[in-house]
Automatic annotation (TrEMBL):
Source taxon at top rank: Bacteria
Organism this protein belongs to: Albidovulum sediminicola
Protein name from the UniProt record: Uncharacterized protein
Amino acid sequence: MSARDLAEIGGFSDSFARELLAGQRPFPQETQSALEQLLDDFERITQAFAQEMREGERRIYIYRTNEQLRASPVGRVWPARGRAAGGFIGAYRAAVFNAWRNLQNQGINAQLIFAETPEVS
């Protein structure tokens, strides 16, 4: 998770988020709760991708930015966390790679594709 993502979740500045990540300040309770929810999202996404791949889907789209993820079909169903609009590319990619790696160990291969759409500016 980037400092910018943390700042968006908590509704505070990037510099305050960097101080949190450096251990210089305690995390606000509301932010802690949002991060716990994000961890649950990570686990659900990992499970959903693993299930899709077991059922035959062999293409996984990797998004480049939070905005592109949020505009995608996956991102549109991702709930808001804290004061943030929704999905986060870091958590999404980690979940995808976690599912991909676990399934490779089971002999199930999938193609990782950088998404060209949706286009966002």
